[in-house]
Amino acid sequence: MALVTYEGASSSSFTHQPKKFDVFLSFRGEDTRLGFIGHLYNALCQRGINTFIDNNLQRGEEISVGLLKVIESSRISIIVFSENYASSKWCLDELAKIVECKTKDQLVLPVFYNIDPSEVRNQKGKFGEALSNHEEKLKDYKVQSWREALFEAANISGWHYKH
Known about the structure:
Elements: E1 21-27, H1 29-46, E2 51-52, H2 65-72, E3 74-81, H3 89-102, E4 107-113, H4 117-121, H5 125-138, H6 142-154, E5 159-161
Parallel strand pairs: 1-2, 1-3, 3-4, 4-5
Helix pairs in contact: 2-3, 3-6, 5-6
């Protein structure tokens, strides 16, 4: 799977930029990449749906500006919430950007992969533990914005996938 990069408009021109991708996939790789996400990505591509997946991105402490632009330049974001999604600051930064883009008419579709939607919405279980760990380490406003984004995204009607 090839990585497509986007060099485009700044976030200030978000509403005027053309959409480069039909779908942006947000997921925790260790939970879903080799199974569910791989199948979903292939199914979307086989149907001619231009889908972004982050297979070859350089990982760092913070989400890259380029990836934020990719999120902005997508018509739809599919968020695959899985057991360890909230343990990744990277995933939570993606989520916060996706929720921001939702207010600018991006369609957001959540998938709850082997996780109860109420656990995401109420930040209980693994989601609550992960956020508490982030709060201990970061001690800044970011965790609260992640909590709000999780709550908002989990309140969107989506799909609940269980084995």
